[in-house]
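Example 4.3 (complexes with small molecules)
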Amino acid sequence: MKLFIVNAGSSSLKFQLIHAHKRFDTLYEGIVDGIGRASCFFEASAGKKHTHYKKRIPKHARALKEAINILFEFGVVDSLKEIDAVGHRVVHGGEKYSKATKLTKPVIQNIEALSEIAPLHNPANLEGIYAAKEYIKHAPHIAIFDTAFHQTLPEKAYRYAVPREWYTTYHIRKYGFHGTNHRYVAHQTYNHLGKNKGKIITCHLGNGSSISAIKDNVCIDTSMGFTPLEGIPMGTRSGSIDPALPLYMTEKLNIDTNKMDTLLNNKCGILALSEKSSDVRDIWAKAQKKNKKACFTLEKLAYDIALKIGSYAAALNGLDALSFTAGIGENAWYLRRDICSYLSHLGITLDSRKNRANSTAIHDKKSSVHVLVIKANEGKQMAREIAHYLQ
Ligand code: AMP
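Answer. The structure with adenosine monophosphate bound is encoded below.
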């Protein structure tokens, strides 16, 4: 069974063709970045075949056409009829969707309606859906929602201490995001533990970051909230701050709420702390030269992440495994070391050599908690869920 996976962002489109057999091998994958800008970067590969070029690509539909052209050029398929289903990443499924869902007209209408609370994400996802439905008509199109894995949160975790009407009328609650990768990493973690039960914390630390608490394969809490702005500091997002702060600073800076929204999403987090870059690789390079702002950025990140892990260990009332994933989680060994230095009271001790090597298991023999590094793979998880849906 061949599954075409589409992840349409505001100015990018990622695609994968996955062979949904035992190992879920990727046959073809790539990215179009800069859609709508003067010049757009296209990259695709299939095994040893690789191509990349720059040109203007005005719309998602055109980006998808390029991806399909190269799919044929590489000879991965002879006809689009070989594609059995198309999977779409959809960021916001609200309270309606907790698993893979066929994109029928009413489902698409619901995703359109949810754009109200996910204005940055759902409209872009829909562009990908409209385009793919035009090109690949014979196969079912299936949505995988970023929020779905977190739909199991108990009410005490997802409700905010605000007037009830905010929830009932305006749908204000914690939704959580990155759910597909949290689900994937949880699955890999339980595989490693050799059982399907246990208390685990998954740390997705990338450009956007979120942490989830999972008990016996059920997500019980997660750090992102009504929007992906809540939680720990991220590349350019503030994470959680005093809720009075934006009100106060909107007035002080004499700006409107849109401008404040842009500031909180694009000018805060690692970028604001370091006053240099949102990329941890740059921060680490500076920190090695004893740059004070860079050292402080790493110190603050490790501290805030450790606090969240500590609070989730309390929510779980114990911890069997802690898993790191995504760009920072998989590579920044120095951050993992600093985060775990706060967690020895939970019985966490690292093997420094394994941690530096980004090995899969990085705890030492004394550690009472498994500490793992797991490569993010949303495409594979989406393919698994679609295959399960089609069974
Ligand atoms: P992601 O969102 O998972 O693609 O993660 C992207 C972020 O991961 C980048 O902005 C970097 O901050 C970070 N990152 C990627 N590679 C490395 C690396 N080798 N070392 C440290 N951080 C990295």
